[in-house]
Design goal:
The protein is of the alpha+beta class. The structure holds FE2/S2 (inorganic) cluster (FES) and fe (ii) ion (FE2).
Length: about 375
């Protein structure tokens, strides 16, 4: 962890506590209700999400060369294979003959060949087309150009990040993840963590309602009064932007109780750090572990949430497993409070009570996110 980063957070947190607010220059804003209810908007946003790196799996679930994982994400059938080089490569899991899904959902450890269930075109673990039964029937086939479509793939912070649009296979996801990812990986235990307690589930709300909740601490004292509110200073969150990403620092009550020095300051002891990777991924960094939450829009009013916990090593005892599970349980109880409110908002959106949702100065990051998202969608549509 860089000294500057810790010292800077200490300075910012101290100034916010003295001023009794973290956002002296921020402006509130409004977001039109239609942004959360339009199917057309949701499908354009899904298209944009396919152009942004998505954390589709934990690197630790593909332990060694030959390990593979077949899944579907944002509507795209995917095949991930750890190559002999040690790197994970993602492919579109769709046959280049007549488009059948090549590998059914599942996983394995010894990829030798992937055989399409329709006419048995066969692909090597590196995606190359190896065999075509009765190939004389395809006199014009360029076998070397007919491998599975590759997708831009990197492994960062223990996660496999994939750009799901095959048109962008030459793009480097590291460029999008940027310096915020470098900062995340510099934290102890987060350069090569292992995954614990993954789960996916659905929420009956627009995915952006779940994002909005991550951008303000105004709701903590009320919505999280039964779980985590007591651990934090009321409504006090320092936000740094990294291009379209954000790092949010939610200050803990012990920051004012202990009054820690700037020298040797440990931000993870005195607050929660949330790393938000635009537009749909948050990694909440706790003192000794982190929680990933990635949002997959399924329509205007339905979202699949993918969660997993990143811990420094595989738990070596029942006691260690119980310790991590207790952390996971508290995280899930807290998120359930947020998601229940998001579902309640979604149900009320169609009532006509509001044409817009209103965000205060300390909630500025949410309307700012919405306008950045709209701009990105417009740029995509204009081919920029
Ligand atoms: S569709 Fe795959 S072999 Fe024909
Ligand atoms: Fe919350």
């Amino acid at each position: 962890m860089s000294e500057n980063f810790a010292a800077d957070l200490h300075r910012r947190a101290t100034a916010a506590m003295q001023a009794e607010r973290a956002d002296a220059d921020a402006h509130g804003g409004q977001v039109e209700v239609g942004q959360y209810t339009s199917d057309d908007t949701a499908s354009q946003e899904s298209k944009l999400l396919r152009r942004c790196p998505q954390p589709v799996a934990a690197g630790s679930s593909l332990a060694a060369p030959g390990a593979w994982l077949s899944m579907t994400h944002l509507g795209i059938p995917l095949l991930l294979v750890r190559q002999e080089s040690g790197q994970v490569q993602a492919f579109v899991n769709v046959c280049r003959h007549r488009g059948a899904r090549v590998v059914p959902e599942g996983s394995g450890n010894e990829a030798r060949a992937f055989v399409c269930p329709y006419h048995a075109w066969t692909y090597r673990p590196d995606g190359a087309l190896r065999g075509v039964p009765q190939s004389f029937g395809f006199p014009c086939l360029k076998q070397e150009e007919s491998g599975l479509r590759k997708l831009a793939t990197v492994e960062r912070a223990g996660l496999v990040w994939v750009i799901l649009d095959p048109e962008l296979s030459q793009k480097d996801p590291n460029e999008s993840l940027g310096s915020l990812m470098d900062n995340l990986e510099s934290l102890a235990g987060l350069s090569a963590p292992v995954a614990f307690a993954p789960r996916s589930y659905e929420v009956e709300a627009n995915w952006k309602l779940l994002v909005d909740g991550a951008f303000e601490a105004y709701h903590f004292k009320v919505a999280h009064r039964k779980t985590i509110a007591h651990m934090f200073v009321d409504n006090m969150q320092v936000i740094d932007e990294f291009d379209l990403h954000r790092r949010l620092y939610l200050i803990k009550a012990r920051f004012s109780e202990d009054a820690p020095e700037a020298t040797g300051f440990d931000p993870r002891k005195y607050g929660n750090l949330t790393y938000f990777f635009f537009p749909n991924t948050t990694i909440l960094v706790q003192p000794d572990h982190a929680q990933l939450s990635s949002l997959e829009p399924l329509g205007a009013s339905r979202t699949r949430v993918h969660e997993l916990t990143l811990i420094p090593e595989v738990p070596a005892s029942d006691k260690a497993t119980a310790y991590w599970q207790a952390n996971v349980d508290l995280y899930r109880r807290t998120l359930a409070e947020d998601y229940e409110l998001a579902e309640s908002i979604q149900r009320g959106l169609a009532s006509g009570a509001n044409d817009v949702l209103t965000f205060g100065t300390f909630e500025y990051s949410a309307p700012r996110f919405h306008s950045q998202l709209r701009q990105q969608v417009a740029d995509m549509q204009a081919g920029r």
